[in-house]
Each structure stands twice: as C-alpha cells, then as structure tokens.
UniProtKB/TrEMBL annotation:
This is Putative DNA-binding transcriptional regulator AlpA. Keywords: DNA-binding. GO terms for molecular function: DNA binding. The lineage of its organism: Bacteria, Bacillati, Actinomycetota, Actinomycetes, Pseudonocardiales.
Length: 68
C-alpha cells in the first residue's frame, strides 16, 4: 500500500485550503486579518489567492500542541 504525500510546490485554492483545514471561508478571511493566524497566501494577477502546500504544512505544524 502506498500513500501519496502532497506535492509541497502545489498551490491550493482558498476552497481547497478550507476543505483541508475544515474551516469556513469566512474563518479563513478572519484569520488573514490577524498577523500569523493564517498561512501565507499568494495573490495571483487575477486577484485570487493561493496557498503553497509547503506553507500550509508549516502553518499546520506551528499549531501543534501537546494533548492535555
């Protein structure tokens, strides 16, 4: 059995990020207003945002905490 690791160079849409993180788009945009609360996003020339998988994974790792 093989499991495919995500390509760290892949760009996620906001919808894809929200589905992976299991948050609403509204939550994502609120997080973007708080420095460091959301992963780094890149704005494309057409104005849409993309999140690099590597940035998403780094952001996710930064939210890890020991279980209580």
């Amino acid at each position: 059995m093989t499991s495919a690791l995500p390509d760290p160079n892949q760009l996620l849409t906001v919808d894809e990020f929200c589905a992976a993180a299991r948050v609403s788009k509204n939550t994502f945009y609120k997080w973007r207003q708080i420095p460091g609360a959301a992963p780094v996003a890149r704005k494309l020339p057409n104005g849409s945002l993309r999140i690099l998988v590597a940035d998403y994974l780094m952001w996710l790792d930064g939210r890890r905490s020991d279980a209580a």
